Amino acid sequence: MKVRWTTLLVVVLFANSILCRAQTQLVNGIAHIALRVSDLDSSRNFFHRLGFEEAFSFTRDGKTTEVFVKVNDRQFIELYPRTEAGQPLGWMHVCYEADSLDALNALYVARGLRPSPVVKGGAGNLIFSLDDPEGRVVEFTQYLPGSMHFADRGKHLGEHRISNLLVGIRIAIPDLVAAEKFYNAGLGFDEQDAKAGVRMRISIESDQWIELGNASGSRGTEFRLLVPNTDRAARQALAQGLAVKRLRRLAYVSDPDGNVFAFEEGFVRRDRGRVEVQEVWQVSDMREFEDGEGAKAVGFSHGDFGFVVEAFDDAAGEGFVGAEVIEDEFAMFAQGADNLFHGIDAGEHGLMTPGIEEFCRPSRGVVFPQLLQGFLE
User: Fold this and answer.
1) In angstroms, rounded to a whole number, what is the distance separating the alpha carbons of residues 355 and 332?
2) Residue 274: CB partners within 8 Å, gap ≥ 6?
3) Residue range 93-108: average pLDDT?
4) What is the dihedral of CA 187, 190, 196, 197, to 10 degrees?
5) Which of 17, 218, 231, 315 is the most buried (most CB within 10 A)?
6) Are strands 137-142 and 90-98 parallel, antiparallel or unpaired?
7) Contact 252, 262 (CB under 8 A)
8) Is 148 exposed, middle or buried (0-12, 13-18, 19+ CB in 10 A)?
9) In the CATH hierarchy, which fold is given to the domain comprising 12-271?
10) pLDDT tops 50 at residue 118
11) Rounded distance, CA 44 to CA 56, Å?
């Protein structure tokens, strides 16, 4: 009898795991964050200085009611002007993208949540929403052909935008226990480790996340943007007259209303069927490359994320610092030699083209480094 009950328990746990995995697969990642701002022109200028472009906007009676700033083809920052003096400024809500809103809505109903009905929004996409334990709106959207977002694909992707991916959001929560239950058991987000608070991975197909922090702490809401090189991102922001704060490997800037945007160093890679955000590999000992004479990246094709492979300045030296922009594009760092030579035999001579292929989930772009010459020759 004990064996039977043990077997039943294993089956139930496995079935629950499969259901959670299926649900998480329905949510692709962050679609947008919404901010209420004190002055639209000042906020537009802030994001323009970071290289982002405005995709489109809504107007009513000759006044702008909403502005869509583009991060990539699947991610936006929505700006709403304050219309009444008592309206709080700052973060309003986050919206997640899903492939099938009807299926996701039905699943949430089955889980005991109370999502609103699925409707078509003003931009032409399907949307529904529900409230988190603090009463804040959580939105979900499904991009549809013919929508304003769909029509803008491939457009307004600022050539020099400081980041191509909104990778995470940190929010301060008064009741961490209730919030953890809502996001994990309710929405089905995958709980991960975090240094402070609780981090939930949004999708098994990417490492985008939401982190729940303690409201009693000193940190508030924070939006994390992935960059190939934090030092360069900080210099770019400083060159635009923005104040930059540094903390370890992060660089922080604030918009005119005090919303905090942090630049995190890393890159996006596809590994074993899922997209991962990788931290940059820090080289401290280059003795294994003693016979190398550097590398040069020649020719690239890239998708919306615009990442390219970084050229090592001095592979034979004690180490390399910083990154070198190639053809005015952002550099993509290899996490390690095993990633740089993924799938090939990196012998002493006659290296073949690295078989690196990256499906960057938020934009479904593809990056193909075509040729590396001179590495370890």
Assistant:
1) 15
2) 204, 205, 206
3) 96
4) 30
5) 315
6) parallel
7) yes
8) middle
9) 2,3-Dihydroxybiphenyl 1,2-Dioxygenase; domain 1 (3.10.180)
10) yes
11) 12
Encoding tokens for residue 179?
Answer: 């919030």
Radius of gyration over every alpha carbon of the chain, rounded to an integer in angstroms: 22
Alpha helix (H) residue ranges in 319-370: 337-340
CB 268 within 8 A of CB 358: yes
What local confidence, expressed as pLDDT, does residue 196 receive?
62
Beta bridge pairs of residue 120:
126
Task: State how far the Cα of 29 lies from the Cα of 369, in Å rounded to an integer.
Answer: 25
Burial 23-53 (b: 16+ CB within 10 A, else e): bbebbbbbbbbbbbbeebeebbebbebbbbb
Instruction: Give the model's pLDDT for residue 191.
Output: 82
Instruction: Count the neighbouring beta carbons within 10 Å of the beta carbon of residue 334.
Output: 22
Buried b / exposed e over 126-142, threshold 16 CB at 10 Å, is bbbebebbeeeebbbbb
Q: What is the pLDDT of residues 237-276, one digit of tens each?
A: 999 999 999 998 899 999 999 999 999 998 776 554 444 5
Work out the average pLDDT over 286-304.
33
Round the average pLDDT of the chain to a whole number and report it.
74
Angle (nearest 5°) at CA 13 between 12 and 19:
90
Report the percentage of the chain scoring pLDDT > 90: 54
Task: Answer yes or no: is pLDDT of 331 > 60.
Answer: no
* Domain boundaries along the sequence of the chain: 12-271, 281-377
- Could you tell me which of 263, 261, 255 has the C-alpha nearest to residue 89? 255
Amino acid present at 86: G
pTM beyond 0.85: the answer is no
The tokens of 162 are what?
């400081």
The token pair that represents 213 in the structure block: 């922090």
With b for 16 or more beta-carbon neighbours within 10 A and e for fewer, the 198-223 pattern comes to bbbbbbbbbbbbbbbbeeeeeeebbb
Per-residue pLDDT at 363: 39
